[in-house]
Amino acid sequence: MENFREFIYTKCLDFSIRIARLYTYLQENKKEFVFSKQILRSGTSIGANLAEAQYGISRKDFLSKSYISLKETAETMYWLEILRRADYLKEDEFLSIYNDCEELKKLFMSITKTTKNSMNNNKKQPTSNSQLPTPNSKLLTPNSKLLTPNS
Fold first, then answer.
1. Is residue 137 part of a domain?
2. Is this model's pTM higher than 0.90 or not?
3. Total structural domains within the chain
4. Which residues contact 94 (CB under 8 A, 6 or more apart)?
5. What is the phi/psi pair of residue 146, to 5°?
């Protein structure tokens, strides 16, 4: 488990650095100031939310932060697509960073699915009212004695 945590943390950190470099490239070389800020926010938020998730106060908190990371990958892919279609990125530049983002998206899809399934499997199934003993019922084994108010 620890190796996977290090693996995905490193992937997110490396991706954030690529996004920061893309931001600088877009601002300095392409004089693009709107989309570059959007992709900087969403692209670096992926790893920031992972860092928060790793220290979540509950599994539900971990799942919530992981979903936010997943949604941020989708948003980042959207901004990358805009940058490609608006000719701010060449096809090879786009594919390189887009594929990295796609890989992160798949990892977070797996994390959220696995965590959610694990949480659902750990929930105790409530007993129906018909299975609950009543105050006057005798319980479980033929030889057991239940003390009820009427005993």
1. no
2. no
3. 1
4. 80, 83, 84
5. -110, 125
Longest dimension (CA), the chain: 88
Residue indicated by tokens 């490239």: 25
CA distances from residue 17 to 24, 47, 57, 96 in whole angstroms, order as listed: 11, 10, 28, 14
Tokens 């007993």 -> residue: 127
CATH number of the domain residue 113 falls in: 1.20.1440.60
In a domain, 61, yes or no: yes
**pLDDT for residue 1:** 59
Domain residue limits at 102: 2-119
Question: Can you tell me the distance from the alpha carbon of 11 to that of 128, in angstroms, rounded to the nearest whole number?
Answer: 46
Cβ distance 137 to 131 under 8 Å? no
Tell me the mean pLDDT in the region 95-101: 98
Q: Phi, psi at residue 144, to the nearest 5°?
A: -75, 150
Contacts of 45 (CB under 8 A, 6+ apart): 68, 69, 72
- Both tokens of 7, joined, read 């693996």
- Dist CA 61 CA 67 (whole Å): 10
Token digits for 88?
């701010």
